[in-house]
Amino acid sequence: xxxxxxxxxxxxxxxxxxxxxxxxxxxxxxxxxxxxxxxxxxxxxxxxxxxxxxxxxxxxxxxxxxx
Length: 67
Description:
It contains two helices and no strands. It is mainly alpha-helical. Helix 1 (about 5-25) runs antiparallel to helix 2. The longest helix is centred in the C-terminal third of the chain and has 33 residues, at about 30-65. It has one domain. The protein has helices at about 5-25, 30-65.
C-alpha cells in the first residue's frame, strides 16, 4: 500500500472519528450511547493502526530502506 493510500485512509478515519464524537456528544444516554461508544472505540483503534502503518512507511523512506 502506498503512502498516499494510507494517508487517504487515515484522513477518512479521522473524519469518521470526528463524526462519531459529535454524535456521541449530541446523542441521548442509554443503549444508543453505548453502541456509539463501542463504535467510537473501534474507530479509534483503526485510526491508531493506520497511523502506525503510515509512520512506519515514512520511517522506512527517511532511512532509505524499502521492502
